[in-house]
Amino acid sequence: MQPSPNRLKVGLVTDVGRIDDGTFNQYAYEGLIRAAQERGLEVEVLQTESPVEYEANLRQLIERGCNLIVTIGSTRGPAVERLATRYPDVHFVVVDHEPLPETKNVTGLVFAEDEAGFLAGALAGLVTEKGTVGFVGGVDVPPVRKFHRGFVHGLAFTNRRAKVVSAYTDSFTDPEAGERAAAELMEQGADVIFAAAGASGSAALRAAAKRGAWVIGVDQDQWVTTFDDGQAPGAERLLTSAVKRVDQAVYTAVVQAAEGKLRSGVLHFDLTNDGVGLAPYHAADVAVPSEVRGKILEVTDGLRSGRIHTQVGPLGEDLRAGLIRRITAWNWQAALVPLLAIFTALVIGALFIGAFDPDVWAAFGTGFGAGLAAAWSSIVRAYAALFEGAFGNPARIIAGLQVYLQTGEAADLLSGIRPLTESLRISTPYIFAGLAVALGFRCGLFNIGAEGQYFIGGLASVYIGYSLKGLPWFVHLPLALGAGMAGGAAWAAIAGWLKAKTGAHEVINTIMLNYIAYRLADYLLQVGGPMARPGDFRPVSPEIEPSAYLPQFFPNDPSIRINAGLLLALAAVGIVYWLLFKTTVGFEIRAVGANPRAARTAGISVTRNFVLAMALSGALAGLAGAHDILGVLHFMPNAFFSGYGFDAIALALLGKSHPVGVLLASLLFGFLRAGAQRMQAPPAFVPIDIISVVQALIIIFIAAPEVVRLIYRIRAPKVEAEAVFTRGWGRI
After folding, report:
1. Same domain, 456 and 579
2. Do 607 and 569 fall into the same domain?
3. Most CB atoms within 10 A, among 73, 330, 492, 519?
4. What does DSSP assign to residue 327?
5. Are 205 and 182 in contact (CB under 8 A)?
6. What domain count does the chain have?
7. Are residues 488 and 515 in the same domain?
8. How big is the CA angle at 33 (ends 31 and 34), to the nearest 5 degrees?
């Protein structure tokens, strides 16, 4: 609900504090008054002395006829939203708060505090002489955490040897606590102090400056407020301030309301629109020489352009992860539980093998010992066959290698390694499909439609493969691969768009799109259909041109089907890793997956990332289909069902939605699937379904890690990260 600009009356309710306290209360007031004077608006102001007065003050302004109310504080959002529901004709503007999507009469003003903090840290790193700087925080809320974490990362950017010591006052209105915090940090060696703690922080800066430390202010230019336009003692020690232009943000919101343009949701302010930054250096010019200023300008430009990232999440979480940090964060249990899940599944699979072997029961009829021996023999034969089917017979490989070295004849060697190559060939589409589902998971989306996208990718690639003739391979093959990716991407993007725009659940959408893909293939490939092979009684497509074939590793032995698709799959692992963890796009995808509301607060488009993540996911699944067409079959049958798309869900779960984890899980499933073919042949005679049982058990144990911990008496970690895979209907 938007107030009518013709009868706009604006109210301001401060957080605990006054309109002259040098904090957001004062800056919001100044921005409001500027807008009101320009637009001729009537203004009412109530100053909150105690938290218990806050909601009553809001109600009082509503009773006085204010239909646009500005207020301050990330902790005040719930009270505002309660009143917003009851008073739909009143529009609320809240500094440092992201409103719920369903509240249509609340606008949040949010800031990139991490960018301002990063600049403050970069400056501190260039100025410190002792190599220790300090941070004073007020209440541990997201804006303060973002200042803090940005400061830490900015310091590391310009001075890797320096360190940050910190203290929190747990209050924005306790000057004595601020002074104590500053003294504590200076005793620890800090010679630069940055404070983000309201009035508590102002006191900390004054105390630190008096003791000779360089200080950095926050929110507004504290040369004007805390140091009384440079007249207060210690003003010469103020380097600058990491400013949030709350006055400009409030001014913008009120002007938009006066023009009838204010909308609910979030207005985001960062370096790109000068919503945050550094204040002038004032009397501290001597401490900030031209080369330091130049460096800060470079950092500012890097942050503004996206070349430099603060590595701070929407809630102030630390997203920076070096090698040692990743190793310690991904503790031994993270690897141990999946390994034990695989081991346990194989043990249970062995019990099934023994239990369903008639020879074992016959042996038990002659004696318990004979039965156990027969069961052991059956299990060993089965898993030996599994190993040989997946890796080959080591004796045959060694013998073939000896013949090759002696005579140059490779036939025996190729025959020996054929099982290994087949395992890798089967693993290749698993890698593509697993990455597809994992990428969706990272954005909080459950792409259960990888199988349909695999189908569409296959259809697109086979059409380009057979319909274009006379092209050189270096043109034809990329076109066919690109068509497969584009087909899968477009098919998945439909579900992403529906999710983003209507809230329709992606699981339902992708399941339905799977059925459409199947029936579309039926229609196109039926005998006499638009893509059917002329003169063939089978529902298959024409064969693709040789120029669209994926190159084979062993072209002289057609029984070995491993091809260049494996190299593409390995490249895809690296590209997806780089995309997710080294780029702004990947950061936004992960931020939306972790908390879409917080991501929106940080200025990240949830809609765009839902569609983008699904499109990228579909492109990978489509590439899996293109691989099987261009590298293995060279035509498309009507029955193109592979199961890769559904197995991919298990791969993403097993690999914890990490590209390297998906690679390892894909290799495991590929080797199991290849080895299962050998298990059902003599002398094992084990049903191939046993491997399906083993795969299912692995997923069960991965999905329920507490079962594994209970079996092996492994203590659960105190805090275990939870990946958000999907959300309810209509919720983003």
Report:
1. yes
2. yes
3. 492
4. H
5. yes
6. 3
7. yes
8. 65
Chunked mean pLDDT (size 10), the chain, 732 residues: 69 86 82 93 90 89 93 79 88 86 83 94 94 93 91 94 93 92 95 93 94 92 88 92 91 93 88 90 80 92 90 78 48 69 88 86 89 90 89 91 90 91 95 96 92 95 96 96 97 93 90 93 92 91 96 90 96 96 88 82 84 96 96 89 82 90 93 85 72 80 79 64 43 44
Q: How many CA atoms are closer than 13 Å to the CA of 349, on its beta-carbon side?
A: 26
| Residue 168 sits in the same domain as residue 231 | yes
Burial class (CB in 10 A: 0-12, 13-18, 19+), 595: middle
Q: Could you tell me if residue 217 is inside a domain?
A: yes
Sheet holding 276-278, edge to edge: 163-168, 132-137, 192-196, 214-219, 238-244, 276-278
CA distance 352 to 671: 20
Q: Supply the DSSP symbol for 102.
A: T
Q: How far apart are CA 425 and CA 420, in angstroms?
A: 9
Query: Given this model, what pLDDT does residue 595 score?
Result: 82
Which residues, 6+ apart, have CB-to-CB distance to 557 below 8 Å? 411, 414
Residue 669 lies in a domain: yes
Angstrom CA distances, 387 to 121, 413, 419, 626, 649, stand at: 56, 17, 9, 29, 25
Same-domain check for residues 260 and 238:
no
In a domain, residue 680? The reply is no
- For residue 419 the two structure tokens come to 């099982």
Structural domain range at position 149: 113-243
270 neighbors 603 (Cβ within 8 angstroms): yes
Q: Is residue 732 part of a domain?
A: no
